[in-house]
């Protein structure tokens, strides 16, 4: 059982690290692509700020992804036991 628990812990830690790495890549893509869109808007006459829609919608989705990567934690055995005792 100890080996199975170590494997499970290892897999969970690896999955968390992969989520964080993906999030950092997504932030870089957000910055580069949106900088390009703002530059395109500025060069094309700077009328109505249409890149704001992309910035806002993508930004909200990026925040949700960041929450998932850095603040959401996997359910542990302790969490399950605590919930079971709470409902009795």
TrEMBL record:
Residues covered by the 2TM domain: 11-84
InterPro entries: 2TM_dom (IPR025698)
Keywords: Membrane, Transmembrane, Transmembrane helix
Protein's UniProt keywords contain Transmembrane: yes
Transmembrane region(s): 27-44, 50-67
Name under which the protein is recorded: 2TM domain-containing protein
Lineage: Bacteria, Bacillati, Actinomycetota, Actinomycetes, Micrococcales
């Amino acid at each position: 059982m100890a080996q199975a628990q170590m494997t499970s812990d290892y897999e969970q830690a690896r999955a968390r690290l992969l989520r964080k790495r993906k999030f950092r890549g997504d932030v870089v893509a957000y910055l580069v692509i949106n900088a390009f869109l703002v530059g395109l808007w500025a060069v094309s006459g700077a009328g109505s700020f249409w890149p704001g829609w992309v910035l806002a919608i993508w930004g909200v989705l990026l925040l949700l992804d960041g929450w998932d990567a850095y603040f959401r934690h996997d359910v542990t055995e302790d969490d399950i036991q605590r919930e079971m005792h709470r409902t009795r």
